[in-house]
């Protein structure tokens, strides 16, 4: 949409370079977390990712469920 600058990056940092850039310097620890839905820049950049492909799918389902509540 015109004037909307929101970026949603889907996929883990090993397969998605945008996610890797967005998570650089963040506190995401893939040994402790298997999936993440994280707002990286308030209101404009969101990462939906997992440690493995199945984890990313689960994170995406969580994200969609959260959006539906709004």
Number of structural units classed as domains: 1
- Class computed from helices, strands and strand pairing: alpha+beta
**Which consecutive residue ranges, at least 5 long each, have pLDDT under 50?**
none
Helix content: 25-40%
Largest sheet: 3 strands, mixed
Mean pLDDT over the residues? 89
Number of strands: 3
Note the gap between the termini.
18 Å
Biggest sheet, spatial arrangement of strands: 1-3-2
Overview of the molecule:
With 70 residues, the chain is of the alpha+beta class. The model has no long low-confidence stretch (mean pLDDT 89). It has two helices and three strands. The longest helix has 17 residues, at 53-69. It has one domain. It has a three-stranded mixed beta sheet, with helices on both faces. The two termini are 18 Å apart.
Question: Which labels suit this protein?
Answer:
70 residues; alpha+beta; three-stranded mixed beta sheet; 3 strands; 24% strand
């Amino acid at each position: 949409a015109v004037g909307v600058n929101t970026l949603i990056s889907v996929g883990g940092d090993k397969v998605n370079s945008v996610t890797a850039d967005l998570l650089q310097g963040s506190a995401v620890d893939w040994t402790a977390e298997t999936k993440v839905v994280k707002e990286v820049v308030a209101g404009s950049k969101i990462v939906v990712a997992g440690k493995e492909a199945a984890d990313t799918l689960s994170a995406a389902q969580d994200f969609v469920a959260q959006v539906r509540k709004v």
